[in-house]
Automatic annotation (TrEMBL):
GO BP terms: tRNA N1-guanine methylation
Species per Swiss-Prot/TrEMBL record: Lupinus luteus (European yellow lupine)
Organism ancestry: Eukaryota, Viridiplantae, Streptophyta, Embryophyta, Tracheophyta
Name listed for the protein in its UniProt record: tRNA (guanine(9)-N(1))-methyltransferase
Keywords: Methyltransferase, S-adenosyl-L-methionine, Transferase
Top-level taxon of the source organism: Eukaryota
Length: 346
C-alpha cells in the first residue's frame, strides 16, 4: 500500500484513514483560489507522518514474513501428523478437514448472499448517499489513491451494516474513474456509478439534494429518506477550505453539517474524512443516535480528553491499535472483492 494515505480504521469497525485526516483548517481567506503552501508545522507533521508510514511498511513486511513462516510451519505439522497415523485414521483426518473447509465456505457464501440482499433492498428503499468525485484535479496522486481507499472502505463498512445506505459515486470519470476500475470486484459492487455529476444525474431531485459540509450553518438533525446527502470526495487536508460550501451555494442546493458540536468536543477541526462521514451516516441509520455514531467513528485523538471514553489512553497505544486495525480493515475491505487485494498496491 503506497505512502501516506490509506484505509485505517479504529474503534470497533470504525474507519479512520490515517494520513487522510484533515489538518487544522488554515485561516486563509484566499485558500479557495490559491491553496496555502505548507507551514513549518505542517511540514514537520508531514515528516512525522512519512516516518510513521515507513515504520508501518516495515511492520507490514515483518508480519507478512511471519505469516508465511507460520503457514509453512502448520503445513509441515499437518504432513507429519498424516505421516504418523495409520491409513484409516489418515482418511478420517483428511475427510474432517475437507468438511471443515466446506462449512467455512458455505458460511462465507451465506454471509455474502445476505449482504447482497441487504444492499439490493437498500437500493430500492434505502437512504441515498452520494460521494461527489469531481475534485480529482485538485488532488495529488497520493490523495486520489487515498480517496479510492476510503471509498473501498465505505463499501466494505456499508456491506457489513445491518442498515446500509445506497451509495452513489458521481463524477466517476478520468483518473478517478480509472483508479476505481482497478479495484478488484468493483464492477460487481451494488452501487450507482455515474460519469455525470450528481447535479445532472439527479436533476429531477435537485430540491432534495443536501451537500454535507463542515462549513454550513445548518445542522443535520435527522436523516431524511427523501433527501440525498452528498459527501465531497476530497482528500485535501482542508487546503481547499470552503470549496464544497461554495459549490453547493453556486448550484443552489441545500447544505448541512453533522451535529458534531452538540455531542463531542473536538481537539482540532470538525472536518472529517469521506469515510468517517459515510460511516457516521451508516451508524446513524443503524442506531438513530448521533452520539453513538460519533463515538464509534471519530478517533479518540481527535476528541478532547474530557470527551474521550477511555480518557487516558496514550497516543502510542492508539497508533499501535490503529496499525493493527489498518491491517484488519484492509483484509476486510479486500474480502469484499473477488481478486487479490494487492492489485492496488502496484
Ligand atoms: C475531507 S472533507 C473535504 C474538505 C473540503 N475542504 C471541503 O470544503 O469540503 C470530505 C468531505 O466530508 C464531508 N464532511 C467532512 N466533515 C464534515 C462535517 N463536520 N459535517 C458535514 N460534512 C462533513 C464534506 O462533504 C467534505 O467535503
Amino acid at each position: 500500500m503506497p505512502e501516506v494515505e490509506e484505509a485505517h480504521p479504529t474503534l470497533n469497525d470504525g474507519d479512520v484513514v490515517k494520513g487522510a485526516e484533515e489538518e487544522e483548517p488554515q485561516n486563509d481567506e484566499k485558500a479557495l483560489d490559491d491553496p496555502t503552501p505548507l507551514s513549518k508545522n505542517a511540514q514537520k507533521k508531514l515528516l512525522r507522518q512519512k516516518r510513521y508510514e515507513e515504520k508501518k511498511a516495515e511492520k507490514k513486511a515483518l508480519e507478512k514474513e511471519h505469516k508465511k513462516k507460520e503457514a509453512e510451519r502448520k503445513r509441515k505439522e499437518w504432513e507429519e501428523k498424516l505421516a504418523n497415523v495409520p491409513e484409516e485414521e489418515k482418511v478420517k483426518l483428511l475427510e474432517s478437514r475437507k468438511n471443515l473447509r466446506k462449512e467455512r465456505m458455505d458460511q462465507r457464501n451465506e454471509e455474502k448472499e445476505k449482504k447482497r440482499e441487504r444492499l439490493l433492498k437498500t437500493k430500492q428503499f434505502g437512504q441515498n448517499v452520494v460521494v461527489d468525485l469531481e475534485f480529482s484535479h485538485l488532488m495529488t496522486p497520493n490523495e486520489i489513491h487515498s480517496l479510492v481507499q476510503q471509498i473501498m472502505y465505505c463499501y466494505a463498512v456499508n456491506g457489513r451494516s445491518s442498515s446500509p445506505a445506497h451509495l452513489w459515486l458521481t463524477g466517476c470519470d478520468g483518473e478517478m474513474g480509472n483508479q476505481l476500475q482497478r479495484i478488484p470486484g468493483f464492477d460487481k459492487w451494488i452501487i450507482e456509478k455515474e460519469k455525470e455529476s450528481y447535479i445532472e444525474a439527479l436533476q429531477d431531485r435537485k430540491e432534495n439534494l443536501v451537500y454535507l459540509t463542515a462549513d454550513s450553518e445548518n445542522v443535520v438533525e435527522e436523516l431524511d429518506l427523501n433527501k440525498i446527502y452528498i459527501i465531497g470526495g476530497l482528500v485535501d487536508r482542508n487546503r481547499w477550505k470552503g470549496i464544497t460550501m461554495k459549490k453547493a451555494e453556486e448550484q443552489g442546493i441545500q447544505t448541512a453539517k453533522l451535529p458534531i458540536g452538540n455531542f463531542i468536543q473536538m481537539s482540532s477541526s470538525q472536518v472529517l474524512t469521506v469515510n468517517q462521514v459515510f460511516e457516521i451516516l451508516v451508524k446513524f441509520l443503524e442506531t438513530r443516535d448521533w452520539k453513538t455514531s460519533f463515538f464509534s467513528v471519530i478517533p479518540q485523538r481527535k476528541r478532547c480528553q474530557a470527551d474521550s471514553e477511555e480518557g487516558n489512553a496514550n497516543d502510542t497505544l492508539q497508533e499501535e491499535n490503529e496499525e493493527n486495525d489498518d491491517q484488519i480493515a484492509r483484509k476486510k475491505a479486500c474480502g469484499e472483492n473477488e481478486a487479490p487485494c494487492n492489485t492496488l498496491e502496484t
